[in-house]
Amino acid sequence: xxxxxxxxxxxxxxxxxxxxxxxxxxxxxxxxxxxxxxxxxxxxxxxxxxxxxxxxxxxxxxxxxxxxxxxxxxxxxxxxxxxxxxxxxxxxxxxxxxxxxxxxxxxxxxxxxxxxxxx
Length: 119
Prior knowledge:
By secondary structure, the protein is mainly alpha-helical. The chain has one domain (14-115). It has five helices and two strands, in the order ββααααα. It has a two-stranded antiparallel ribbon with strand order 1-2. The chain is elongated. Residues 1-7 have low confidence and may be disordered.
């Protein structure tokens, strides 16, 4: 007989976060995911932005071996533009140098280096 005091062990209390493009998958506690998502939902304008910021926060947490709550506490109080800049800084450490985020200046090689590149 089921009791109100006991949780239903057949239901999983984790959230699976995945990104097919970057082949990233992570399982996190559902309460932690809800706390992070609810913060970004109050800061951003759309639900999709909040989901993207939440996913990236967990990617940063996973790669830096820092608890997600500590990362969230360090960015609280920032505007959306400051959040974008902070996330670009952390995510650029995870990416290849040829695909950096937030870099608007095009990289032009020197004359001699460009001369050695075959079409």
